[in-house]
Amino acid sequence: MKNKELAWIFARLGDALEIKGESGFKIIAYRKAARILEDLTEDIEAVAQEDRLKEIPGIGSGIANKIDEYLQTGQIKKYREVVSRIPEELLDLLEIQNLGAKTIHVAHQELGVKTLDDLKKVIEDGSLAKLYGLGEKKVENIKKGIEIYEQAQERIPIFEALNIVEEVIAHLKKAPQIGRLSPAGSLRRMKETVGDIDILATGKNGSRVIKHFIQFPGVNRVLAAGETKGSVMISTERGERQVDLRIVDEPAYGAALQYFTGSKAHNIKLRAMARSKGLKISEYGVFKGQKKIAGFDEKEVYKVLGLPLIPPELREDRGEIELALKSLLPQVVDYSDIKGDLHVHSLHSDGHMSIEDLAGLARAMKYEYIAICDHSQSVKYAHGLSPERLLKQIKEIQELNQRYKSFRILKGIEVDILQDGQLDFPDKILKELDIVVAAVHKGFKKKVTERILKAMENPLVTAIAHPSGRLISRRDGYEVDLEKVLQGAKNKGKALELNAFYDRLDLNEFYLRKAKEMEIKICIGTDTHYPAGLQMMRLGVGIARRGWLERKDILNCRGYKELIRNK
DNA sequence: GCCGTTTTCGGCCCGACTGTTTTCAGTCG
Known about the structure:
By secondary structure, this protein is α/β, with parallel strands linked by helices. The chain has 24 helices and 17 strands.
């Protein structure tokens, strides 16, 4: 797929034009095209071949021609023309806070700045501050921006962000002046990683709430503490994390929550829509002329635009507004729809809980079932089960199940897909099980696609676990053609896993949505080895919602009987 | 460069903050 390459080119083109000082709207158009290509689930080459490029909203004849040009010749003339005149490193400087395209442009023109080092020099020798429109304070801010840029904070995994926000919110609830309170930003939209942590609240006395906020025990540094905004750095074992709190007036809470939840693209489309109806949306409310007609809660804001409340996880301008207008929005899955966890490990392999304890935890979570899927024999490092040990485990499960009236432990396995695509156990063993999840754990570069396709030919396989193999913070994943895996799953009627382990989240939201479009079933499993890990199901549900999944798309939204019947 | 239930031309999201160019440009979210 060339989608990402093209997205990158258009984003760079936008940056380059901005530094050149070209018209703002052209830049916006290129950046929008970049985002659309980044989000697109279809292969852009297929779209181009069928001459449908211009059907994609945001892509007109100019960009469509450039996409065609790239697909045919491997380059875009316009891009080469524009970018060749600008030093590559100059584009990267746009990421520095408090330093924008205009300043980069004059620094380049007037002082010959080409690199970060050049920039530092003109700051030190005072020549930058002497430029028209700049001054000492501005340069001081740019200097701070460079510092932050150089110790570039990596993004925060959603799991960690959720834990932090939970603690901070618990702390904020103790402030006597606090009113309504919610996470906002990409955290509320459940993006798999977030840049910082945003919280929105109302309160009778803003500055007192902020004062309480900055007394949170984990606070390391206070960046700002005014009447409406507080910003702190919290120290965690992985470094400092930024948490922002905004206080708004009670009547504007809904509008502010809508605004601060984003995404930016979603909000821009919403505002354009409002404008065409003669309305104006801001973080203070929806206005008709001077008159405020909505803003107390989010539902109201959407309602005056003729829309149902769009779930935060869908707010990415990926077609949700258009569908909402036609009342065709998917009824995305809710955490309460989940009837069980379909992938957990016990003491029998490398987990840290007995099967009995796992069952107890699952019952406390109001699940109807839990599937024990320990590793198979060839995964030595995880103490994988031999056939004999598996049979023993099956017996233990059968005995335990006699205790429960309305709860079931499912006999399962996470069976390895070996180097030749064979499974780690013969069929006569797999036949004894309720659920068979097949997974690659070795040979990440060795014919992974073929091996997975072969594994799916076995009728006893229920699903493929963590199909891409990526670890968000550590590795990209297998050399695997997921398009082919999806097609294979469709052909063979196999489910694919949404592994909810915080560092996997695999399949990701884009492939989930594609799987849904192909009517492939998804099973969500936490893959946990520890008690607390069962809670990662909430992450799984969040990502499932971002993939537009509904109850009917997810195997573990089925009750026990239906699940087993359709296995 | 994109787009059309006002439009094939003339618009394109909104507001806050900051610093500097004392009236607004640049940057951010």
